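Exercise 7b. Backbone tokens:
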């Protein structure tokens, strides 16, 4: 069998999960990076991300078993309220009228799952959801910081990246401890 470049490329794509890309399917992180080029999409997705973080963390304040989880949730509420405000100010300065943040269907589903839990079961589900949400948020903000079409929003996205990375680091320490 003679290996040609197309054969090697198809094999490499398949090994890397590229078979989904070849079928027109992409990962949520890839979708967010691609979507994070225009201001309106970025503002809507950033608002939804922050809203999920705030609402799920408000639930953690009352349903969480661990003081460390509740402390993390307090940080989420404070930090994501601040990033929502920053995105809104930057959008308005760019001449946009951002709509109020609204949850996406998958975020609503995650919130609904949390509402049925308490104690350590809540903590476990909350932390897992936070890891997923923060991976998506990092992809969104990193993608817009690199490729966004509005300088003021690119600056906000760039400033959000280290905050999100800090949250991811805290999540890893919470999971380890």
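Sequence design result:
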């Amino acid at each position: 069998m003679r290996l040609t470049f197309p054969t090697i490329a198809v094999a490499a794509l398949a090994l890397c999960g590229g078979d989904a890309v070849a079928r027109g399917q992409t990962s949520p992180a890839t979708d967010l990076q691609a979507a994070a080029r225009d201001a309106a999409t970025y503002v809507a997705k950033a608002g939804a991300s922050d809203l999920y973080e705030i609402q799920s963390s408000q639930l953690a304040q009352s349903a969480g078993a661990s003081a460390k989880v509740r402390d993390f949730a307090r940080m989420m509420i404070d930090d994501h309220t601040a990033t929502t405000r920053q995105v809104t100010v930057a959008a308005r300065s760019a001449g946009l009228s951002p709509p109020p943040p609204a949850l996406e269907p998958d975020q609503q589903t995650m919130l609904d799952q949390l509402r049925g839990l308490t104690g350590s079961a809540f903590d476990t589900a909350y932390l897992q959801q936070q890891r997923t949400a923060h991976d998506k948020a990092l992809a969104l903000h990193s993608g817009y910081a690199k490729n966004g079409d509005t300088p003021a929003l690119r600056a906000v996205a760039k400033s959000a990246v280290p905050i999100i990375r800090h949250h991811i680091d805290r999540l890893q320490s919470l999971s380890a401890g």
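Instructor comment: Residues 27-176 form a domain with the Ferritin fold (CATH 1.20.1260.10). The chain has one domain: 27-176.
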